[in-house]
TrEMBL record:
Topology versus the membrane: Multi-pass membrane protein
Lineage: superkingdom: Bacteria
Stated name of the protein: Phospho-N-acetylmuramoyl-pentapeptide-transferase
Cofactor(s) listed in the protein's UniProt record: Mg(2+)
Associated pathway: Cell wall biogenesis; peptidoglycan biosynthesis
Family the UniProt entry places it in: Belongs to the glycosyltransferase 4 family. MraY subfamily.
Organism lineage string: Bacteria, Bacillati, Actinomycetota, Actinomycetes, Micromonosporales
Xref: NCBIfam families: mraY
Entry keyword annotation includes Cell cycle: yes
InterPro entries listed in its UniProt record: Glycosyl_transferase_4 (IPR000715), PNAcMuramoyl-5peptid_Trfase (IPR003524), PNAcMuramoyl-5peptid_Trfase_CS (IPR018480)
């Protein structure tokens, strides 16, 4: 627990105090966010606000992970193996960093071209597929000495559903789809000041709790499992909790500057980085289908875009004034702050329901 707390605070402090430096640097480099002309008119006032702020909390998360491992050096000799970085960390941080790199390329092109086009859709999807494929393969084809992989060959909800065994190749394909869905879901949500950041904090904090609970009830803990107690078959849950906690702490520090009126945007760098990490968390904790509830806000906002596209292409009519959904409410007269706070409430409800389902499954199994 000590390592997780250290990682959270280190990430928070780095993000809190480095973000204003990034604001000055990106402003000097004229890395301002281009605003699409067809967007809500009130957004034109945000033109020129520095973007690519996701670089700060991605770097803060990686540094905090190292700090958390330094804290682990105080463990007793019997637990010292936990100090060594793992394949799990490589997968999770790799997903965050390289998904963020795809987003960074998109942001860089937007700033350079001085328009909101950026990387074309095909290029962005290709990058997401490549990142998902590489780390999906690593997660499924590199087992630990105990034979446990980061990912699973079965679909999962609270844990693996053995009846839904799909094999390694199909699992990698499914994971690629999850990476694409989460990165685009967070990206679509990132349309108002602090909206995606605050929602991501809740989801990542939930994964930190889930992973730490799995660590406390871990099948690899021979003393715990020997008693026939209910346990979780996952790999390196303490690593997962440490990284999720660090990312949540980094996002809280960033939110200080990203909340309305935002002085910096996370950009696609941050949105895709967070989406990649969240996808990795769902895989590593064996809660892939639970992510639909845990990330309920991202699902709702993504579906609003899907519904709008299908409706317009089939009937020529729009269901919403504008998609994603948050812009519909802007055009309906809601203030930006009201939309963000109410959407945070929706995100919190999804997280609460998901955690309730996770814990109730444990209670049902031990009673």
């Amino acid at each position: 627990m000590r390592a997780v707390i250290v990682a959270i605070f280190v990430a928070f402090l780095i993000s809190l105090f480095v973000t204003p430096v990034a604001i000055k640097v990106f402003t000097r480099l004229k890395a301002g966010q281009p605003i699409r002309a067809e967007g809500p008119i009130m957004h034109q006032g945000k033109k020129g606000t520095p973007t690519m702020g996701g670089v700060v909390f991605i770097v803060a998360t990686v540094i905090a992970y190292v700090a958390g491992h330094l804290a682990l050096t105080t463990l007793p000799e019997a637990q010292i193996a936990q100090v060594t970085p793992t394949i799990t960390a490589l997968v999770l941080l790799g997903l965050m960093v390289f998904s963020g790199a795809v987003g960074f390329l998109d942001d860089f092109l937007k700033v350079r071209k001085r328009n909101s086009a950026g990387l074309n859709k095909r290029g962005k999807l290709l990058g997401q597929i490549l990142v998902g494929a590489v780390f999906g393969v690593v997660a499924l084809y590199f087992p630990s000495t105990a034979g446990v992989t980061v990912g699973s060959t079965a679909l999962s909800f609270i844990r693996d559903i053995n009846a839904l065994e799909v094999g390694k190749v199909a699992s990698v394909v499914i994971f690629i789809f999850v990476v694409m869905a989460t990165t685009n879901g967070v990206n679509l949500t990132d349309g108002l000041d602090g909206l995606a950041t605050g929602a991501s904090v809740m989801v990542l904090a939930a994964y930190a709790l889930i992973a730490f609970w799995q660590y406390r009830h871990w099948c690899a803990d021979t003393d715990y499992a020997r008693g026939g107690a209910y346990c979780y078959e996952v790999r390196d849950p303490l690593e997962i909790a440490l990284i999720a906690g660090a990312a949540a702490g980094a996002c809280v520090g960033f939110l200080w500057w990203n909340t309305s009126p935002a002085r910096i945007f996370m950009g696609d760098t941050g949105a895709l980085g967070l989406g990649g990490l969240i996808a990795g968390m769902a895989m590593a904790t064996r809660t892939l289908l639970l992510l639909l509830i845990l990330g309920g806000l991202f699902v709702i906002i993504t579906m609003s875009v899907v519904i709008q596209i299908i409706s317009f292409r089939t009937t020529g009519k729009r269901v919403f004034r504008m998609s994603p959904l948050q812009h519909h409410f802007e055009l309906a007269g809601w203030s930006e702050v009201n939309i963000v706070v109410r959407f945070w409430i929706i995100a919190g409800i999804g997280v609460a329901i998901a955690l309730g389902l996770f814990y109730s499954e444990f209670l049902a199994s031990v009673t």
